[in-house]
Amino acid sequence: SQARKIVILPGDGIGPEIIAEGRKVLDAINEQYNLGLSMETCVFGGAAYDETGTPLPESTLNACRDSAAILLGAIGGPKYDKAPRELRPERGLLGLRSELGLFANLRPALLYPELAAASSLKPELVAGLDLMIVRELTGGIYFGQPRGIEERNGERVGFNTMVYSESEIRRIGIRAFEIARQRGSRLCSVDKMNVLEVSELWREIMIDVSKDYPDVELTHMFVDNAAMQLVRAPKQFDVMVTSNLFGDVLSDAAAMLTGSIGMLPSASLNEAGQGMYEPIHGSAPDIAGKGIANPLATILSVSMMLRYTLKEAEAADAIDAAVAQVLAQGYRCQDIATGQSEEKVINTTEMGDAVIAAL
Amino acid sequence: SQARKIVILPGDGIGPEIIAEGRKVLDAINEQYNLGLSMETCVFGGAAYDETGTPLPESTLNACRDSAAILLGAIGGPKYDKAPRELRPERGLLGLRSELGLFANLRPALLYPELAAASSLKPELVAGLDLMIVRELTGGIYFGQPRGIEERNGERVGFNTMVYSESEIRRIGIRAFEIARQRGSRLCSVDKMNVLEVSELWREIMIDVSKDYPDVELTHMFVDNAAMQLVRAPKQFDVMVTSNLFGDVLSDAAAMLTGSIGMLPSASLNEAGQGMYEPIHGSAPDIAGKGIANPLATILSVSMMLRYTLKEAEAADAIDAAVAQVLAQGYRCQDIATGQSEEKVINTTEMGDAVIAAL
Ligand SMILES: CC(C)[C@H](C(=O)O)[C@@H](O)C(=O)O
Ligand SMILES: CC(C)[C@H](C(=O)O)[C@@H](O)C(=O)O
């Protein structure tokens, strides 16, 4: 049934390799917990452009619409730099977000104790880091109209529109407050209210939403200061909520604080709870096909899928525990290896196998 | 004469305290090098709002127009949060940038060897950091039209426009290439070309400008990746050039990498070479009036003024050397003190005196 259908989009670069491991874990957990999930693999991104001439074929979009959740590997690569703008892999991703209304992007930045040394920050500043960024994903300057390049006063001008309506701000606000309530009950809304009108409305609505969440502490920060504070003292944050563009930048900065972006999953949810789940690390064309990519972010994306869309918290906990265990056992893919003697550096499939063994 | 007139804007918070020390150094260097500079102090920011009802009084604007350079302390504070939007201190700053056409914002991020421990990054990743961010300052979403909050389909919508013309991109590009040529000859242009049309034009024009600078290596990076790379390996960069909003975020992140924002000056230049010089740290209302603020960023802003507008490189070098010397002597204001035994923690005026003594 639709409520149990998972669409799998391997995508480009290392996508197929890491998805194979994510799939292995998903299959195992499906059986172990009797979840009754059915899987369907579709073509997407650059691979779909190569095969069908478009990064988001109609058949893939329909399969996604008809699914409970989507597991995405990664898309893009230098091969597609010369493709027409509207047919580049990223357009497929933006199209899917928009078509499915996946407005709530959850970007956890979590530092595993064993990997603290991988961070470029001093260990004491990041040890125990557990931050959640809630990024609005279907509005703002990514989708705002008018946009384009046109001739004005004898020269070309490029323009985009950063736009948010009250209802768009309210629904991402509600989502963020709900998440904060389930965590440390502190929410920091990031805007540029001292310069932008769109941020003025953003802040006003966040304050309005906060009235329904007296148990959650709401603070506000300008985006430039937020970027500073993430570098200075990231553990001051619990949950951050921000617009599409600011979230793009801050969530990547926050991810990099952990030093191990090969470990970080993400979720993109719509009103109905349908979700797309993907590792944040991208398609890494330089190591594609070598079998050395770290599949843990994809495996943790499976865990997020179980938790946020399928409401199978027990199965999700099992995956999280298995990942923690393989790290504790010293297993590392090359991206998170630091050369310590306790480490056992393994490849993509071995890491998938290790997680299955730990399950 | 106008070519030798310096307007001083103390502003708010710690502004007057740090400006007093900057002024002391400027007076000393004026005499020592026989520069023939004349100084005039004007009211600006929140202080001007309190006194005259507007953050940028006509008389201040006229004095600034009629000057060679402006030395600004800092503006703003919680006291003005409730002032009408158009009369907040920041609006004075944005107005001054715009009225004087100060389109080129130079934001060095330099880590002094003695202060490496202050960084939140591991010392080996930041030791020797010397990065220059060139931020476009009078265009983009800061000033783009249309902008506002209005009713659409029964709800309010906030909107701003990110807009750049070819000529705006070209002139900041030229400035950045010129600066890169005088440094490590590597320029990284930061955009969001995979999503924004305005960035498509930005990248195209940067590539076009690069044809006149075959000796400078031009690379491109998406803003989200740039934020990551600054955290991961900031020393990979020599000069970065980017738009107003991206530059706002990235330059603050880069500054914080040094761990000592109390040390960082900035310049904002127009076509004619006229410039506004200011420390990047802001008005720090929490320590205002205590006499403990670090005046070194202001003193280094005086140095930038001598170098970039007044073309007095020798005098600028003398200030830079004096600052390096006081650091080597162990003098620290509290913001950059780390508790090591060689350090002598001193206050604002003592630091100004120490620099004068070293001159
Ligand atoms: C590929 C790109 C369009 C995308 C974005 O900017 O949203 C990516 O950076 C992300 O954060 O998922
Ligand atoms: C005060 C504010 C308007 C300003 C800006 O955003 O440009 C500040 O953050 C800066 O970077 O100088």
Automatic annotation (TrEMBL), chains A, B:
Entry binding sites for substrate: 97, 107, 135, 224
Cofactor(s) this protein cannot do without: Mg(2+); Mn(2+)
Cofactor remark: Binds 1 Mg(2+) or Mn(2+) ion per subunit.
One term under GO cellular component: cytosol
Binding site for NAD(+): 77-90, 282-294
Main enzyme class: oxidoreductase
PROSITE patterns: IDH_IMDH
Entry function: Catalyzes the oxidation of 3-carboxy-2-hydroxy-4-methylpentanoate (3-isopropylmalate) to 3-carboxy-4-methyl-2-oxopentanoate. The product decarboxylates to 4-methyl-2 oxopentanoate.
Catalytic activity field: (2R,3S)-3-isopropylmalate + NAD(+) = 4-methyl-2-oxopentanoate + CO2 + NADH
PANTHER family: 3-ISOPROPYLMALATE DEHYDROGENASE
Keyword vocabulary terms for this entry: Amino-acid biosynthesis, Branched-chain amino acid biosynthesis, Cytoplasm, Leucine biosynthesis, Magnesium, Manganese, Metal-binding, NAD, Oxidoreductase
Single GO term (MF): NAD binding
The encoding gene: leuB_4
Isopropylmalate dehydrogenase-like domain mapped to chain residues: 5-355
Residues holding Mg(2+): 224, 248, 252
SMART domains: Iso_dh (SM01329)
Gene Ontology biological process terms from the UniProt entry: L-leucine biosynthetic process
Site (Important for catalysis): 142, 192
Family membership noted in the UniProt record: Belongs to the isocitrate and isopropylmalate dehydrogenases family. LeuB type 1 subfamily.
Annotated Pfam families: Iso_dh
Protein name listed in UniProt: 3-isopropylmalate dehydrogenase
Keyword RNA-binding found: no
Location of the protein in the cell: Cytoplasm
